[in-house]
């Protein structure tokens, strides 16, 4: 009995030691997010030349992902994963779905990343669970520049290493006029900047920024980042202003841009969008100006039952939560660990 107990304790300690040696952040300078804290965040890999490009996106409907056009440029079929917290651990909350249609903005410029916005229509709907939910789009009157801070999310790289657990960072939103004055970056009319000692890395491309003035909606899409700016080596992030593209989103998808919980149709009709072009994976025909790639492939849906499809909000307050883990969150985590440990001891006994 004593030997078994010692072995169980040793295994717990060993697991903690291994976890502590994992790469620290994908969001540079961030901290680990609470599990299921941001259930609308998804991740995916895109084949790029001889490597794979890691990107993130935002679930605005159970079968529709908002991301950057630079992420999905020249992409074929994409497998999107939702409900994930740890890249290396599988805990049963993950769901995967293949892309059906990829729609990039018709005026996307890959050189300067103007209009860096895209939609990924999935081959089926994710099951809504505590780990997989949607987030709303902002109202047209929201100006991200007026927010003081934003929450950046992702599994981005720091020093060449990728984070295992989802990271979050509170970053300062930089005045666009000052940002445009910097010679190191070109900021379009549809973009805004963040400047801080922490923020999204290159690996977080396509991911959301949640602004302090509207915590229940996605206000920005990560387009680019430039490290080591200024004397304090801040990270300059360039984000697409989502409020500026509500009409484009509405035109290129059948959902109401202020109600992403509305179900989308099985396929986006290319004939109903004058400013779109559709490239079918089976016919390769091009019809208008929006680059739309239709892909085929089987979808892998989770077996978990679908919960209430009511719309999810991040917070009802107008201030950013503190970066440090809240006392309530810490207590819950500690209680969960204690219960698990006690359960192990009880079984062994």
How would you characterize the overall build of this protein?
The chain is α+β, with helices and mostly antiparallel strands. It folds into 2 domains: 146 residues, Trypsin-like serine proteases (Thrombin, subunit H, Beta Barrel); 100 residues, Trypsin-like serine proteases (Thrombin, subunit H), CATH 2.40.10.10. A 6-stranded antiparallel β-barrel has the order 9-12-13-17-16-15. A hairpin with a 2-residue loop joins strand 10 and strand 11. The longest helix has 22 residues. It is globular. It starts with a helix and ends with a helix.
Helices and strands in order, then pairings?
Layout: H1 2-20, E1 27-28, E2 31-32, E3 41-48, E4 51-61, E5 64-67, H2 69-72, E6 79-82, E7 95-104, E8 118-122, E9 149-154, E10 157-158, E11 161-162, E12 167-174, H3 176-180, E13 191-196, E14 199-200, E15 208-211, E16 220-229, E17 234-241, H4 246-251, E18 277-280, E19 291-294, H5 327-348
Parallel strand pairs: 18-19
Antiparallel strand pairs: 1-14, 2-12, 3-4, 3-6, 4-5, 5-8, 6-7, 7-8, 7-19, 9-12, 9-15, 10-11, 12-13, 13-17, 15-16, 16-17
Pfam families: Trypsin (PF00089)
Subcellular location: Secreted
Region (Disordered): 251-327
Instruction: Determine Rg (CA atoms, Å).
Output: 21 Å
Q: What's the rounded overall pLDDT mean? A: 70
Strand elements, count: 19
Element string (H = helix, E = strand): HEEEEEHEEEEEEEHEEEEEHEEH
Percent of sequence in beta strands: 25-35%
Described by the principal axes of the CA atoms, the overall outline is: globular
Total of helices: 5
Q: Quickly count the domains.
A: 2
Q: Uncertain spans, ≥5 residues at pLDDT below 50?
A: 1-26, 256-349
CATH class group of the largest domain: Mainly Beta
CATH homologous superfamily annotation of the largest domain: Trypsin-like serine proteases
Helicity, as a percent range? 10-25%
Instruction: Report how far the terminal alpha carbons are from each other.
Output: 7 Å
Largest sheet: 6 strands, antiparallel, barrel
Signal peptide: 1-19
GO biological process, one term: proteolysis
InterPro entries: Peptidase_S1_PA, Peptidase_S1_PA_chymotrypsin, Peptidase_S1A, Serine_Proteases_S1, Trypsin_dom
Main location: secreted
């Amino acid at each position: 009995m004593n030997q078994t107990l010692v072995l169980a304790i040793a295994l717990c300690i060993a697991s903690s030691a291994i976890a502590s040696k994992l790469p620290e952040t994908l969001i540079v300078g961030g901290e680990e997010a609470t599990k299921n804290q941001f259930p609308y965040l998804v991740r995916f890999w895109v084949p790029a030349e001889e490597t794979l490009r890691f990107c993130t996106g935002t679930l605005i409907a159970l079968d529709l992902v908002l991301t950057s056009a630079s992420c999905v440029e020249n992409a074929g079929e994409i497998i999107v994963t939702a409900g994930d917290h740890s890249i290396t651990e599988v805990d049963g909350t993950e769901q995967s779905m293949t892309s059906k249609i990829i729609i990039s903005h018709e005026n996307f410029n890959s050189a300067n990343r103007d209009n860096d916005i895209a939609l990924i229509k999935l081959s089926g709907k994710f099951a809504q669970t505590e780990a997989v939910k949607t987030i709303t789009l902002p109202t047209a009157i929201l100006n991200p520049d007026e927010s003081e801070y934003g929450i950046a999310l992702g599994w981005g790289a720091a020093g060449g290493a990728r984070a295992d657990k989802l990271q979050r960072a509170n970053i300062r939103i930089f005045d666009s006029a000052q940002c445009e004055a910097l010679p190191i970056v070109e900021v379009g009319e549809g973009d805004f900047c963040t400047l801080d000692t922490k923020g999204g890395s290159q690996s977080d491309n396509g991911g959301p920024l949640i602004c302090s003035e509207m915590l229940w909606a996605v206000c920005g899409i990560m387009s680019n980042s430039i490290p080591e700016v200024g004397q304090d080596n801040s990270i300059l992030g360039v984000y697409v202003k989502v409020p500026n593209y509500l009409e484009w989103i509405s035109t290129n998808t059948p959902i109401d841009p202020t109600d992403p919980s509305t179900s989308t149709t099985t396929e986006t009709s290319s004939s109903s969008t004058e400013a779109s072009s559709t490239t079918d994976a089976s016919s390769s025909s091009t019809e208008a100006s929006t680059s739309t790639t239709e892909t085929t492939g089987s979808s892998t849906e989770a077996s978990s039952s679908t919960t209430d499809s009511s719309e999810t909000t991040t917070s009802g307050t107008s201030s950013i939560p503190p970066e440090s883990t809240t006392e309530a969150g810490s207590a819950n985590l500690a209680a969960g660990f204690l219960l698990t440990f006690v359960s192990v001891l009880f079984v062994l006994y």
